[in-house]
Amino acid sequence: MKKDNYHNNTIELLNRRRTIRAYSPKPLTEEEENIILQAAIRAPTAGNLMLYSILKISNKKLKDKLAITCDNQPHIAKAPLILIFLADMQRWWDYFDICKVQQKCDAININYEIPQESDLLLACCDALIAAQNAVIAAEALGMGSCYIGDIMENYETHRELLKLPQWVFPITLVCFGYPKGKKETIPLTPRFPQKFIVHTNRYCQLSEQEYKEMFQSVDRKRIIEDAQNFGEQIYFEKLGATFSKEMRRSVKAALTNWMNANHSL
């Protein structure tokens, strides 16, 4: 790599990106929104099928509701632009109905396949790749963003609220807006050293000593007072927390709904 490439603008954007939760009231222009959306649509996609849809949330009451249902996060309601990225297999199967694909399968005596778990995972990948393109486009325009995975919680509520059909699942919500104050004053969140994340040819489980080394650079205030070590803190703060339990329940409900059509055919 040439030395000049170390100062490539895109690389610098990626390395400087941080989550923004406080937004200026400055609205986005229609052109800026279109730039972000077009960047999302140009994202890589499995088989060029674009197995996702994007919901732009502009209704104030709906924003307020989502701020509550997505684990009580007030900044959602204040974001100038909210996009929900949906894993979407419904669009293609609706089109297959129009094209009478099932009747064709019956005529040539082959099984008509409908979306299953693997299709959901593939569509989630498509949607998340599109979301990241949108996030980087916003960074290039001088804006900030915040991923909200909590849109996966309260599946039944969000399904009704957003009028989601059977084979559509909200995999992430992203807030966009100009930062309130200077973005550069917000410290970059540290990441684990590359050597503990990147494996060569096979997966390597870490030793206790390697974990100690990996967490040396982590400066995180203790939130769980009873936690005796960092593992306990992360478990009770995140993966064992109430919101994680709701997310697990919610995703199971979504999978059950997704697969119900398989039993009815």
Descriptive notes:
The chain has a domain at 9-189: NADH Oxidase (3-Layer(aba) Sandwich), CATH 3.40.109.10. 47% of the residues lie in helices and 11% in strands. The chain has twelve helices and four strands; from the N terminus they run ααβααβαααβαβαααα. It has a four-stranded antiparallel β-sheet with strand order 1-2-4-3. The longest helix is centred in the middle third of the chain and has 24 residues, at 117-140. The mean pLDDT is 92.
Write out key terms for the chains shown.
four-stranded antiparallel beta sheet, about 260 residues, NADH Oxidase, single chain, globular, alpha+beta, 4 strands, 12 helices
Mean pLDDT: 92
CATH architecture classification of one domain: 3-Layer(aba) Sandwich
Largest sheet: 4 strands, antiparallel
Beta strand %: 5-15%
What name does the CATH topology of one domain carry?
A: NADH Oxidase
Text of the CATH class of one domain? Alpha Beta
Question: Nearest-angstrom radius of gyration?
Answer: 21 Å
Shape annotation: globular
**CATH superfamily placement of one domain:** NADH Oxidase
Low-confidence stretches: none
Q: What share of residues is helical?
A: 40-55%
The number of helical segments is 12
Structural class: alpha+beta
Question: What's the N-to-C terminus distance?
Answer: 55 Å
Order of adjacent strands in the largest pleated sheet: 1-2-4-3
Order of helices and strands: HHEHHEHHHEHEHHHH
What is the count of β-strands?
4
